[in-house]
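hey so i finally got around to running the thing on that chain from the lab meeting. sorry it took forever, my laptop kept dying and i had to restart like 3 times. anyway pasting the input first so we r on the same page abt which one it is
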Amino acid sequence: MLEKFVEKINGVPAYLRDWINTFRGKLTIICLIGLILLPLANPGPYILGIFATFMIYTIFAASWDFLAGFVGQVSFGQAIFLGIAGYVTAYIMKYIPLAYWDFTSFNWVVLADPMPWWIALLIGAIIAVLFGLIIGVPALRLKGPYLALGTLAMSLILYNLFLMGQLGILWENAFGTELFGTDGLGQVPPISSNSTIQYLMIFLIMCASILVMTHIVKSNTGTLFKAIRDDETGATASGINTTKYKILAFMISGFFAGIAGGLYALRFSGVNPGLFQPLYSFYAIIMAAIGGLATISGAALGAFLFVFLGEILRLLGDIPALDVFGGFTEPIFIFSILLIVIIRFAEHGLLQPVLERIQDVWDLLLGR
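ok and heres what got predicted. didnt touch it at all, straight out
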């Protein structure tokens, strides 16, 4: 029934119609329906918050997978876009109302205070795109491990810049608002005071982000991206402007990482310089690698395991009896071990093996 409905809709890409007919497509639709219906079970703000965090990390991991998995540009500085967009979104929501200049009264007329969250989110993502352009141009002179180390260095520079107390004093003296310093920005208005509405908004943005990134990699531009990834020298010899497309890839990746950063600021009602830490870049790498590189949708599986297993480990860490294990119960330690095991036994990630096992069980239940 679903396949026939999609086929009747004009303008639906052929790859999407074919995907709906696959087991992966049907399972994904079921999962999305489950996420939509989750608020009906009245799980409470805590559970909805965990699921919202999972969806934000899905966008973030997918943005890194887009750059590394489909263009071959491995970056250790994805946290740059996350942090910049998070700060911009938080600053706009906290200090800048929606207003216009009235030439008759020669004064600002405020339309909304605070700024509508979706406008602040979009502006933050656009600023992240500009940083993607700024970073992409000099970074393209580097290749392989040097590109990864170069983006890592930029991330560390921004981290230390936003930590600078003296710079914070200068900013507050000039603009009268806080921005720099260890405390970051707090008390940022959320998307909604209703946790269900906030959850559904993040869900819709996640679906739109994954759909757009998937469409890009399935398009002619995506084919050029994959050609650069597979053989950059051959792509250049074929007349492809590799510099142009790699910069474009940095900007697209920065936009969606910026969307994740803005949602992060709105979800947690604040940001701090810790977002620029390389640890957040490695989070994206871990989630994408767990799900499987060059899959986009694998980022969702990786983010789900990362967030929910991390939450379970955090709760276990509060049990006094487990204190004897010390740092061995830390999430980052567990995920590091998990990543090593996955690379050893499932180098293409868990998404495909998990789908195959689920399909085997499904076929067995149907007697196929």
